[in-house]
Amino acid sequence: MEAYSGADIVNNHELSYYEFEVEGNLFKIPHLVLPGDKNIRDLAEKSIMLKNELNDENRWKKYNNKVPQPVDSLNLFKATYILLGKSASKIEKMLNNY
Prior knowledge:
Layout: H1 8-12, E1 15-22, E2 25-33, H2 38-54, H3 57-62, H4 69-83, H5 89-97
Antiparallel strand pairs: 1-2
């Protein structure tokens, strides 16, 4: 789940953070709410990595370097299905028709 600064969930769960530097100053902002269960956390991390691969260069070019949120979300579902060994053919069909 994405974490947004100021949301109640940010104060009650373990988070991952984006860290970046601007003019020598380090900034850290909440990124994702991490699942408590290790197996789910591992699956989530692998799914996000695979999703980023699925949002490949061809999709970036198709959408003028900004993959739309519905396509990004469908690719996350597709990545999770692939990692669980389930068919993602219906998801791929939706992606091809978007």
